[in-house]
Amino acid sequence: MMSSTIEMKNVSKRFHHKAVLSGLDWAVPAGHVVGLVGRNGAGKSTLLQCALGLWTADDGSVAILGEDPAALSDAVRAQIGYVPQESDLFEWLTATQMLAYFRTFYPRWNQAKVDALMERWSIPANTAIRLLSGGERQRLSIVRALAHDPSLLVLDEPVASLDPAGRRDFLREIVDRAIEGTTTVVFSTHIFTDLERVAMDIALLKNGRIALSGPLDQLSEKMRRVEGPSAVLAHARWGQELARSATRDAQTMLIVIVDEGSEERLETLARQGVRVHAVGLEDWFIAATQ
């Protein structure tokens, strides 16, 4: 298996002279579940669409499953599943009719999985898609993306319209695929409990670039919130500083990823009035994206 399912180098994308992606580098490890996070408007959808070739990058290079997304072979195209943020279903058809149409394009179509998911998620098979609820349409989009057992599954806010039970069931599908190691999954989300439940890796999109990426458990273990006198923290050194903000009374708050030597330095700084705390993923995200 190739080392990276998606590889983006120096990718830039502009809309109406506004830079959305700026010299972005990103590699998605094969067989991993990667959570893509960033503030609303950060460009997560644009990033995923450039990776898939739905938008053409203005600069840089992109490879998906080893091919240029602008000229994918039929074999590679058949290995990709995609659930966009906005439904792109054929709403004048029933679910059965739409799935039968897409089945003709995929030699690896798994009808047994389709039938099982349709029944488990109680999706009306013979009702016009336009009459389904938002959650039912979202589930149907996921069924269509999973139906051909893709090697790469890209999901843009996949659970936004699902109730908690639907989210748990969908995430169980993702976990099963990750355990099997047969599918690389990339999903953008703003629900951190979901991210912590299933993601192996995390990638933070900020200012048009991937500001942080790596194994979620390792990064969580190394994240710290550091607070203390601004004069003391002005020259402090860390493995990686993610956020810095001034607070009242000449105090500074930092979110940092500590490196091998940071813990000893933090002990020294503690004697100068610096306080160090563990930080949760959601608190880190809020601070790091301000």
Report on the structure:
- The chain is of the alpha/beta class and 290 residues long.
- It folds into two domains: 4-207, Rossmann fold (3-Layer(aba) Sandwich); 224-288, Alpha-Beta Plaits (2-Layer Sandwich).
- It has helices at residues 44-52, 74-77, 95-103, 111-120, 134-146, 164-180, 192-198, 216-222, 230-233, 262-270, 281-288; strands spanning 4-15, 18-29, 33-37, 59-64, 80-83, 152-156, 184-188, 201-206, 209-215, 223-229, 240-247, 251-257, 275-278.
- The protein has a six-stranded mixed sheet with strand order 5-6-7-3-8-9, sandwiched between helices.
- Helix 4 packs antiparallel against helix 5 (134-146).
- The chain is elongated and about 70 Å long.
- The mean pLDDT is 86.
